[in-house]
Amino acid sequence: MYVLGCLNGDASRNAFERVVDRAVDRLSREGRVGVVRYDATIADGTHESLTVGGDVTYGLGADGDWTASGTGMTVADALDALATDCDYAVVVGVPGLRYPTLVVGDPVDEHDEVIATVSGPGELDEEELVATLEASEPYETLESLVARVKRSPDADRAGAIATFTGRVRAKDDPGDARTEYLEFEKYEGVADERMTALEADLEARDGVLDVELYHRTGVVANGEDIVFVVVLAGHREEAFRTVEDGINRLKDEVPLFKKEVTVEDEFWVHERP
What we know:
Elements: E1 2-8, H1 13-28, E2 33-38, E3 56-60, H2 75-83, E4 88-92, E5 100-104, E6 113-118, H3 126-134, H4 142-150, E7 160-167, E8 179-186, H5 190-203, E9 208-215, E10 218-221, E11 225-233, H6 236-253, E12 256-262, E13 266-268
Parallel strand pairs: 1-4, 1-5, 2-3, 2-4, 5-6
Antiparallel strand pairs: 7-11, 8-10, 8-12, 9-11, 12-13
Helix pairs in contact: 1-3, 5-6
């Protein structure tokens, strides 16, 4: 699922909503769209599934942490819920997200990853927006990858789904300096090609029906998930074996570079002896 943020800089509400509507309508021609809207005036924990403004809409607001009061649902929770069956998510009114962002008017937060700035709907290049968004890193969860292999044409022959989740640990040992986050960069082009080739190689094994590999890039905080391996197979033996081989080969063969930032230091792991 690809995530697009939409922010209103200094445009009128009408202009902003028209731009959002155009973006959602254009994405809906490519696939299923979910919308997450934040509104500080929502004070009752609104969490509704609607058919307005996309296939699914979540309304969040009220307590200052992008959380729906009463439900405890955050923007990340809403995205997790959408990721299993939506191709796109549009997040409206939440600054500071680490996702491609469309701004109407002047940008309001230097931390936003702005991919387009327009003053109104007439300036929106819809085709460029789709192309730029689909060139970004998709939003995946373990659940979304499991849901994808379950939709495999060979799912009727499957008796097992095995998974691996790698996450950021805060410490190796109790006395270690606490890790605040890891930052991952990939060798552009090469990393994606090798990941795709590795998936194909693993899927060619006897008894293996589908394989999904996913590794996040950018900043990943301690406690967050980094990498997923999901294997659909006829039996558990080949499923477990392929998951283990998959994560080992991903680490060995896919060029990803890791910087570790602790409370005391920061360093690129591959540069350490």
